[in-house]
Specification:
The chain has helices at 3-10, 15-22, 26-34, 41-51. The protein has 94 residues and is mainly α. The N and C termini lie far apart (46 Å).
Length: 94
Amino acid sequence: MLQITRERRGRGWSQAELARRAKLDQSTLSKIESGWLQPYPRQLRRLARALGVPLEVAPGLLVELDLGGPACAPAENDASSPAAGPAEIPDDAA
């Protein structure tokens, strides 16, 4: 999820509402939020203004958020997983 989507949802706005406030087509906003379209600087400025975000941090709206969902969790048999416990060290390795 992009930061822009989080900002929009945090305000309780639909894509249509943010698009209206930013004077963009909803389809354009949908493509930006899904990562299919890199906005022009003018579009990014409009989105930042509509969201009340300072223009200096507007590029941060396009940052992908790591929400730590299941896709980010290590596999069960991954030795680096804390659940796997410490790695076995052979006795002759010392």
